[in-house]
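so im writing up the methods section and need the Toluene-4-sulfonate monooxygenase system iron-sulfur subunit TsaM1 record in one place, dumping it here so i stop losing it
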Amino acid sequence: MKFLRNCWYMVGWSSEFPATDIVPFTVMNEALALYRKDDGTLVALEDLCPHRLVPLSVGRKEGDELRCMYHGLKFAPDGRCTEIPGTDRISSKVCVRSYPIEEKHGAAWVWMGDAAKADPALIPPIEGPDSATFAMKCSKKIWKGNAEIVADNLLDLSHAPYVHEATFGANNKVSLKIQKDGEAKRGIDTIERGVVADRWHLGRQSNPYFGEVPSDDNVVSTFLVPGVFILKIHSYAPGVQDRFVDGKPAEEPIFRRCTCQMITPINDTESMFFYNFGPDHEHTDLADHAFAIAEAAFAEDKAIIETQQATISKVPDRKMIMLAMDQPVLRYNEIYNGLRSAEAAERAAAASEA
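--- predicted struct ---
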């Protein structure tokens, strides 16, 4: 499986990197050793000592450098070996790869491709634990599923009335019809490095997040390379479309909520699923309640994805049949595959010149 490399992959929430720890993490079968320098900035090194291939993550942090605790070699944040006990001369070949890493939105992001192309402006604009708008609670889980089928699941909200029949309040015929109708009428726009779907779920009589309060919900989902899903839902008092000004709501929503979900491929059949969920700060008292509902829904997604992956592994040559409801998936895959093909062409050209 060839994943896109020239992009930022999330490798953890900022809170997962204490000042003294070396944190191992695997992206696309590449083992990384992540740690903080004394000034608090993050470093991402290839997680092996080139001498005997022992992981640096089981070594020791000494100032801004890592020491392998097998034979004592020490490596700087740029990957250079700065010490070999008993040796004065150090060959430039004794080094490890250093990866660009940035910390933004309360999360750590690593660039797995050409370091010269690592543009921090391409870090997806998620709402993190430091969000000024939403009271976000954050977590992560390993899913036994390829990153591409996890992405398909997140892009395809038409599964919600079925997979999430109980958790998202769709366990009655009225709510089920509202969600089905809203998904059937969604608009889909292609943006740079992703897609946006905007739709309305009109006439909800209740909501699992804030109770027996009727609302019209504006549901906007953004999906960005390499697999970042940002969903924001604004719930308005019923009949809001009759009160539009210039085609948009002119009033504040009665409730807002957001979830961001980030897929990082561990290997061809496993993914790290980072996620958060939260209401607006005006409803911080509902944050735990809302997150518990989201956790239950993500467990439902995990179960269906892992079952799907098990089937795919049994019949790897069987092709999926795409339907009209799959337009967001198809649009996004066009963008992703185009970027992946461009990368492959660049690598082929570089190899021919070498």
